[in-house]
Write a structure and sequence with these properties.
This protein has five helices and seven strands. By secondary structure, the protein is an alpha/beta fold. The protein has a single domain, classed as 3-Layer(aba) Sandwich (Rossmann fold), CATH 3.40.50.
Length: 161
C-alpha cells in the first residue's frame, strides 16, 4: 500500500528519537499532510494536544516521563476535552501479548511494530480510515508506489521540513 493522500489531517508524533520523528514526518509529507506536531516525551505530547488538536497520534511506547500507554490512558480518561477520542497508534520495538493487551485496554487504536516500514504505516492508517477512526476531510486517494515489477513509476521525494 502506498501513501494515502490526506492533506487535511493533523498528526502528532511522539518519539524520543529525532531520526524516527523525521522518518515519520517525511512519510506524512508524502501523503500531503502539512500539519505535523512533534513531542519528545509523554508530558510534551499531552500538553501539545490542545494546540495541535490532532486527527491522529503516533506515539512510541517507550517515551520518557509518561509511556505511550499512559498517554493513551490519560487521553481517554479525560472526556471533558473534545480530543479524548483522538485515534492513537502505538509504536513498539519489542511487542509481546501483555503489552498489546494493556495498550488496547488503555484505549490505543492500533499497534505498529518497529522498525517501521512505509507500507506498514500506510496499512495501519488506512485501516483506521476504513474504521472511521481517522476522518480525512477529503476522499482518500492512494498514490502508487514503485515496485520491482514497475520501476518506471516515479515517486516524488518528501519535501524538506
Amino acid at each position: 500500500m502506498g501513501p494515502l493522500m490526506l492533506p487535511d489531517l493533523t498528526v502528532l508524533i511522539a518519539d524520543p528519537s529525532v531520526y524516527c520523528r523525521r522518518v515519520l514526518r517525511d512519510m506524512m509529507a508524502q501523503s500531503g499532510i502539512k500539519r505535523v506536531f512533534e513531542a519528545t516525551d509523554g508530558a510534551e505530547a499531552l500538553s501539545g494536544l490542545a494546540e495541535a488538536r490532532p486527527d491522529l497520534m503516533i506515539i512510541d511506547v517507550d517515551i520518557p516521563f509518561l509511556s505511550g500507554v499512559e498517554v493513551a490512558r490519560m487521553l481517554r480518561a479525560d472526556r471533558s476535552r473534545s480530543i479524548w477520542q483522538t485515534p492513537v497508534m502505538l509504536m513498539v520495538s519489542r511487542p509481546h501479548r501483555r503489552l498489546i493487551e494493556e495498550a488496547l485496554a488503555a484505549g490505543v487504536d492500533d499497534v505498529l511494530c518497529k522498525p517501521i516500514a512505509p507500507r506498514a504505516v500506510w496499512g495501519h492508517i488506512g485501516r483506521l480510515v476504513e474504521l472511521g477512526r481517522v476522518k480525512p476531510a477529503d476522499p482518500v486517494v492512494q498514490r502508487p508506489v514503485p515496485t520491482a515489477q514497475n520501476p518506471s513509476e516515479k515517486v516524488e521525494p518528501a519535501a524538506a521540513a
